[in-house]
Amino acid sequence: MEIKVLPLSEAEKKAKFTDESKLGFGKIFTDRMLLVEWKVGEGWVDGRIKKYEPFMLDPAAMVLHYAQEIFEGLKAYKWADGSIALFRPEMNARRFNHSAERLCMPEVPEELFVKGIEQLVALEQDWIPTSEGTSLYIRPAMIGIEAHVGVKPADHYYFFVILSPVGAYYSAGFKPVRILVEDKYVRAVPGGTGEAKTGGNYASSLKAGLEAKKKGFDQVLWLDGVHRRYIEEVGAMNMFFAYGDTIVTAPLEGTILQGITRDSVLTLSREFGLKVEERRIDVHELMNDIRTGKITEAFGSGTAAVVTPVGALCYTDQCLEVNGGGVGKHTQRLYDTLTGIQTGKIADKYGWIKKIK
Ligand code: PLP
Ligand code: COI
């Protein structure tokens, strides 16, 4: 599909940020967005890059009532030589369509997803920040917009992409976070939508997150919804534990997000000569292994969170520091290597980088 670029006058452009150290995460948006529509009987039509502006939605738009919504998250980086790189965008396209299938939404052709993003990012390239730890966060999403209050899949959708220059996801930057193991609420159950990147999963996580924040934690670590016993993932990251030179993470069994950073961390860990295990981790065993020092590091992975060290983990009334609350050596090396590849300082042996120009 040909994507039209609608004119945008200089007067319509926003003032750009001046201080990259104050970007934070996801508060500023660029001048333009991509919008493509899907209509029953027609398929994908009317792709355009247009001014970033509010949507006019019918109050009966189905997304507002039954939450037919999915999204993705990836980043663009401006390298020192001026070129622009995306990190594994085809993986986001595939996961987006996996989410679409679960929510009974139309699939977006991989080429439309990736080319649309490339075209938008190329037009908005002056918005990509360049200082250490910053990037342009890309947020593709799809919503059902048919005006109808009966429960069924919508017959009209918006697929859209917006862009946000960002700094670190956690306000403290690359510093160990404190995580509470959630023992009251659950995020997902087998057969549910845990593996889909859909807004409802995040809405239903808010209460646990707020209660944890009040107690001084950065995020919660979810347990499986059936036994309330096995480690799943954190609000916006997959979770890893190092037992010396063995890296352990929860398996992909349908209830956690198939993290693209998770997959990259597993590949890099193998490359470093570490042993990798994808297996169920019992929370009681986990706390015991932290207490006895068998677990030497804990960290999370995600597009927004990159690689984030976990310095303390609390479960019911037990609070334990991991690695003395500091950053472990594997965590640091994974962070350095991953961000090195993303920003062009380390050669990409894996074909993860997609250059835009
Ligand atoms: N788990 C959840 C619930 C997330 O929201 C994210 C963020 O996208 C991740 C894991 C990490 O996934 P990825 O590495 O693909 O960003
Ligand atoms: C991401 O890492 O891209 C996410 O989607 C996490 C979060 C901002 C929801």
Describe the structure.
The structure is a single chain. This protein has 357 residues and is α+β, with helices and mostly antiparallel strands. The protein has 2 domains: 4-166, 2-Layer Sandwich (D-amino Acid Aminotransferase, Chain A, domain 1); 177-343, D-amino Acid Aminotransferase, Chain A, domain 2 (Alpha-Beta Barrel). It has 8 helices and 18 strands. It has helices at 62-66, 89-102, 110-123, 199-203, 206-214, 260-271, 283-291, 329-342, and strands at residues 4-5, 32-39, 43-51, 69-71, 74-78, 84-87, 135-144, 156-166, 177-181, 219-223, 231-234, 237-243, 246-249, 275-278, 297-302, 306-315, 318-321, 353-355. Strands 1, 2, 3, 4, 5, 6, 7, 8 and 18 form a 9-stranded mixed beta sheet that branches. The protein is globular and about 60 Å long. It starts with a strand and ends with a strand. The mean pLDDT is 97. It binds pyridoxal-5'-phosphate (PLP) and 2-OXO-4-methylpentanoic acid (COI). Pyridoxal-5'-phosphate (PLP) binds next to strand 12, helix 6 and strand 15.
How would the blueprint of this fold be written?
Layout: E1 4-5, E2 32-39, E3 43-51, H1 62-66, E4 69-71, E5 74-78, E6 84-87, H2 89-102, H3 110-123, E7 135-144, E8 156-166, E9 177-181, H4 199-203, H5 206-214, E10 219-223, E11 231-234, E12 237-243, E13 246-249, H6 260-271, E14 275-278, H7 283-291, E15 297-302, E16 306-315, E17 318-321, H8 329-342, E18 353-355
Parallel strand pairs: 1-3, 9-10, 9-16, 13-14
Antiparallel strand pairs: 2-3, 2-8, 4-7, 5-6, 5-7, 6-18, 7-8, 10-11, 11-12, 12-13, 12-15, 15-16, 16-17
Helix pairs in contact: 6-8
2-OXO-4-methylpentanoic acid is lined by residues 73, 236, 302-304.
